[in-house]
Amino acid sequence: MSSVGYRQLWAVDPDGWRAAGAAWAGLTGPLDRRVGGLRAAGGRLRGGWSGTAATAADTRLAGLRDELASVAPALIEVDQVLAELAGRLTVAKARLAEAVAQADAAGLLVDRSGGVRVDPARVRPTDLASLSAAGVAAALRAALDGAAAADRVAADRLDDLARAAGTGWASPPPPGRPAPGAAPALVSAWWSGLTPAQRRWLVGREPALVGRLDGVPVAARDQANRLRLDVWRAELLAERRRLLSRVPPGPLTSIRLRGVAGRLAGLDALIGRLTTGGAPRAYLLGLDPAGEGRAVVALGDPDHADRVLTYVPGMTAGLDDATGELGRAARVLDRCAALAPGERSAAVLWLDYDAPDFLTEAASASQARDAGPALHRFQEGLRASHEGPPARHTVLGHSYGSLVVGVAAREHGLAADALVFVGSPGVGASHAAELGVPPGEVWASSAPDDVIRAAQPADELGRRALLRTAPLAAVLGWPGQTGHELWFGHDPSDPGFGGRVFGSGRGGHTGYWDPGNPALDGMARVVLGR
């Protein structure tokens, strides 16, 4: 055991590495401004200069622009490398602290060099004490080995970037691209066949393609999508200008303006989360500002995590509150870190479907069915791009999102080890066995005061009567009905569904993530497989 390694790991500050990575990523802003300056200079030259020299100058400026633009993905990659290093060091430090605590509980001493011996003032030297000391020493070695492996991986990736700076960041790939909707396994095989320079070329020149391909590594998708943030923001600003140009605006235009304002505010909040350098690092796996807006964001890198959660939100979810929904995923991830600090976990907000905006829409399963193929491909992509031993994948659906998850699992199959449903109106199945995950890995919780418990089919006359006084009850069903059939099938939190149930405190339809609610621990324990 290396005494230097022990002291270094005990003293290392993972947040310092995160901050360093964020600083590198922050250079993309000045870089973009330089590229814009060269573009403007070229435009001025073309307007007042012609001839052979002018053509040569314009070509040279275009080349400089391309060279500068090709650096941007590398700056983001440095941030990713250092953030992953910080995450792995955090886990290694947690394992180290756990080993030291284990030593203290067993009456053992760990010296400054990492050596383990029996404390004669507390424990008499015995065979049992020697076994305990050997176990603690092994735990310490495992923590140090984890830190050393993290250091090697980061150093190798940074060395690759340094070599690329000398030989050229990017080179064009061969012709041929995966077709839209291609199987993630085929996408992964195509990507693996490219050189690092070809991959960087695609990220920089075809970010719209790379950013949306399930099966491409998370890091590359994040790089590509971050390069498009200004484009997406410009689209929303252009939409707002078009609406403002309508005189008089009219009530429909005013509604649309409010929608654009909400999506723009949501995008700005998401950009803030992406650029703060906070822990865990956020990875942008997809975004679409059109309609209600869609977003797929990971907290932590799913490609290197031991446990991965995919969270599918429900009714009214959209880009305007993407950071709020991301906060729910973050709270489960925080509990995972508290319960298992020595494991790497990641959580994904999957909002890549048209969630219902109104109760009348939520009474239909059509939007859930439309979302099924995309969720199936996304989960397959996570499996295909993951590195190292397979991760445990959990898919969690809340409210209408539970129907999305259930329909996708039943009709298309999900690459998941466990499914979790909270606040569910039914999952489109009558029994857990229909969902295609291992026995005992379908979980559900329903708060005692969740209005979704009333989501039982109502007759048409009753619904019409209730629409005038209680629209929510009218769509969800008669409040006084009994039985286990909800709007979209058997209640998954009923033992008769065949799944497993964990408890929830009172908190209504959205309180499952409240601090202190046992449901929060329940979700985290399923993610961890405990």
Please give a quick description of this structure.
The protein is of the alpha/beta class and 530 residues long.
Using only C-alpha atoms, the radius of gyration works out to 27 Å
Q: What amount of the residues lies in strands?
A: 5-15%
- How many strand units? 12
- Order of strands across the main sheet: 3-4-6-5-7-8-9-12
The string of secondary-structure elements, in order, is HHHHEEHHHHHHHEEEHEHHEHEEHHEEEH
Q: Report the helical percentage.
A: 55-70%
Query: What oligomeric state do these chains adopt?
Result: single chain
Total of helices: 18
Structural class call reads alpha/beta
For the termini, the CA-CA separation is 32 Å
Mean pLDDT: 90
Q: Point out poorly predicted stretches.
A: 458-482
Q: Biggest β-sheet: count, sense, barrel? A: 8 strands, mixed
Shape: globular
Summarize this structure as a short list of keywords or feature phrases.
8-stranded mixed sheet, alpha/beta
